[in-house]
Amino acid sequence: MRLKLAFKEVQEIEERDDGALDLLKKRLVAVTVVVLFFFVVIILRLWFLQITNGVEYEKRAYGNRVRIRQLAPPRGHILDRFGREIVTNRPSFNVALLQEDSHDLSDVLERLAPILNMEVSELWEKVREASGTPRYLPILLKEDIDWKTLAYLENHNHEFSGIRTEVQPVRVYRYNDLAANVIGYLGSISKQELAEADSGVYSGGDIVGKRGLERLRESDLRGEKGHSYTEVDSKGFEQQMLKAEEPLPGREIRLTLDVDLQQIAESYMDAGEKSGAVVAMEVNTGRVLAAVSAPTIHIQDFIGGISSTKWKELLDNPKHPLINKVAQATYPPGSTYKMVTALAGLAKGVIDEDTVFYCPGRYSFGNRTYRCWKHSGHGPVDLEKAISQSCDVYFYQVAQRVGVDSLAEYAQKLGLGKPTGIEMEYEKAGLTPTKKWKLKNRKAKWQEGETLSVGIGQGFNITSPLQICLMTATIANGGKVYRPQLVEQVVDPEGNIVESFKPEITSELTGVDHYLEAIRKGMEEVVQGKRGTARSVAIDGLRIAGKTGTAQVVKLAQYKHLKEEDIPYKYRDHAWFTCFAPADNPEIAVTVLVEHGLHGGSGAGPIAKAVLKQYFSGRLNQIVQ
Amino acid sequence: MFRVDRRLFENFDMVLMILICLVCTMAFFNLYSASSPPKGYGAAPYIKQAYFFLICFALFVFVISFDYQELHFWNYPFYIFIIVLLILSYFVGDSAGGAQRWINMGFLKLQPSEPAKLMLVITLASYYSRKEINDGYSLKDLAMPIALTALPFVLILKQPDLGTALMLGIIFVSMTVFVKLKMSAYTILGSSGIALGVFAWERLLKPYQKQRIQTFLNPENDPMGHGYQILQSKIAVGSGGKFGKGYLEGTQGHLHFLPERHTDFAFSVWGEEWGFTGSLVFLGVYFFLLIWGLYVAMNAKDRFGVLLSFGVVMLIFWQAVINLFMIMGFLPVVGIPLPLVSYGGSSLITTMLGLAILMNVRMRRFHASMSEGGTRVA
């Protein structure tokens, strides 16, 4: 009843004023307009988000959920000429942090540190170092974790948000430092290299060839990256693999090098802690069979980036291990140059093989006296004797007669004084001096006396060991200058041969067969003759032709009267020995340079002998049998 | 005991009913997509919500069965009941995010601040219709409604739940302005409102509330922190594009980038999966329901009916606007659900009760004296 009373009251009000109710209802029209206004605003906003910026937001949604990972391709293997693997790969598992997917980083790093056997501060350091990198790029925390750690992280990956394990192939060097200076090493791509490369090929942190063939053949070796597209949830945990593009392995490179020859040469250089170079080359093709630079770099030090102390050690080492002495260093050719002088003399008609000069142990020219290395003198000397006993006086006279420009001409024709074109970076051209050159570069007139020095391989003359080897090969093959080559074959992952060795003749001497024949005879006497300067190199059953050389480092009177062993190491002469074999049907040329090795025959000869022995090993045995 | 007028059935509003059913159906399917749970985490929200829909249907039938005039009376116990619950929640409530909001009733974790909104609508409608002043209420006349609003307002603010408290304020302002004030009352209320706002910013707001507002003003500053939710919601809606990614195909929602995706951000899921086209359809129906609610008010037979319908429409409308603005990056994250769409029993039941009142007013739009059949007897 109380209710009813209450309603009565209300109804009375209503009946009292119907006009007021209409007034109230009229306001509803305005309210409707307000509601519609907001509806329109919301629709416009939707239009802005979904139509105007829809594509942009779609990209962001995609970026939210899809993680694109680079799959590093295995780098191409490097083999020797017989297919023996010198450089291959193994998988290395790295731990990386993806900031984009990382939640509560400090907690994760704290738990991760003991598992990786690292200090938390080290991990933070890595994160800080990479502070400039975009959030979607992984930050490398540790390289090359062991299987146990890998298994643990894979099984517990949900406890470590943002932490990924990534696989990256790393180099395996089957023969340790074999041919390290030729093959070169890898390192992280530099900002400059990144900027210069075609876009899309590299990204920051990639490992690329830094030196040697690894660098020069980078485009063959690197292969193509793959990508995996993985869907992740908001916590960064992987949900499913959307798609994967497998990486394409790099091409395999088969070198012309022969592991056996390379090894034996290296072991000889190592054993004497020698500094220098050994080059062996096929005389009829230009294939480089061995290219040794000693001391070698230790290639293991470069895996994962060389430490700054080790790098400094390399730079400070007086024997310069970083320089590939095969082609990046030049030395006075010493007596190995006498073949050039001989050829120039013969070709210019200044001498023939029977021309005889008398050697009293010295030669006077102008107001100076030029000494022969044999102070007692060689007596009467013809070409064969001049070469085999390396008579300086003979060649002084030849040089004086042909003049320095002709010497330079024939030196050039034999491959000296210009880059050989081998696949080595920073190859030195060497120098074959001419009058013009001196005037231009030294602003001085050529002194005739200087021609005499040049004639015996001193003076302004400088050559690389590779050039001397090339010259030797050219003499051996009758005048063809081949481009020395290191690559036998490049094979792509499907097994197709992309590139294969073709001999390349860069220049050819013609009409000098007879002269070269005479020079070869002299060279054979050097090894096979009774009084040759390199008799110790002789091998039973093999005819070897060669030439010793001693390159003066300094010409200081104060050391003149010292015994050789008492001269400080750095002032000792460099020892050369260059040869080819067999003398009658040449196949291989071997050149050895030992820095501060004193005498060609004793300092450099044994190494060449070891290489030849190895090269002819199969055939020598047959002969012995 | 009721003897129900036959005309009540004839006046049952099929349009309103169909609109409600349409919105609820779309909302339910959306909730299914938004809340397919990680395995082993109990009943999925959409299953619970399905039960709530059934409860709501029962409540709907119950509410339309009596004359809305009786709310003049039932308003009092309802009001007191809600206030008691609000106080109770302060002592025995479950807390979430540092706020005491829920009273655990086993099946339903009741959030008394939700029905408080509807309670305020009924209270104010009842007051303004009984105390009818057509040339504008003076400040003195408003003392009672202000007090009636302030009590739950302060209790909810204390929880603290700023969003819902503000919602009460908005309902109060909407209804009070609708019944018209005197000019003096406008000025005084307006200026004191501004003063209160400034005071609140300085003294009353919790640090997290301030941060939310600051973050909103500059969301890109802090993409992984507080701006994250708004940003992810915009990405979700925006990436829907013209036609959406397809039902159950939304990546933002299903990969958990979208926060609160079955509650406050439920419509982001819809926007992502159905795109602009689908959103247009949904909002079209939704706003048509609101307009239809105003149409109901237009045709109500008395001042109480008008105010009730208007209040219910405003209750839904303002929550929807605030929620949608928040989702689209126009407002900070304030924790206002989208009525009928966001998961949550308290909100759903409150909204459905409101819509039932709307239907009630609609069904009784003709004066009893003009009816031919029976009369209502108590």
Keywords:
heterodimer, A: alpha+beta, Penicillin-binding protein 2a (Domain 2), Beta-lactamase, seven-stranded mixed beta sheet, five-stranded antiparallel beta sheet, 23 helices, 23 strands, 20% strand, elongated, disordered N terminus, B: 378 residues, 67% helix
Mean pLDDT of chain B: 85
Helical region count of chain A? Answer: 23
Gyration radius of chain B, in Å: 21 Å
Count of discrete structural domains of chain A: 2
- Please state the overall shape of chain B, judged from the principal axes of the Cα atoms: globular
Number of strands of chain A: 23
Task: State the low-pLDDT regions of chain A, or none.
Answer: 1-8
Strand order of the largest sheet of chain B: 1-2-3
Q: What are the segments of chain B in which pLDDT stays under 50 over at least 5 consecutive residues?
A: 370-378
The largest β sheet of chain A comes out as: 7 strands, mixed
Largest interface between protein chains, with number of residues from each side: A-B, 50 and 54 residues
* SSE string of chain B, helices as H and strands as E: HHHHEEEHHHHHHHHHH
Beta-strand fraction estimate of chain B: under 5%
- Structural class of the secondary structure composition of chain A? alpha+beta
Query: Which percent range fits the helix content of chain B?
Result: 55-70%
Number of domains of chain B: 1
Could you give the distance between the termini of chain B? 7 Å
pLDDT averaged residue by residue of chain A: 88
CATH architecture of the largest domain in chain A: 3-Layer(aba) Sandwich
> Strand-residue fraction of chain A?
15-25%
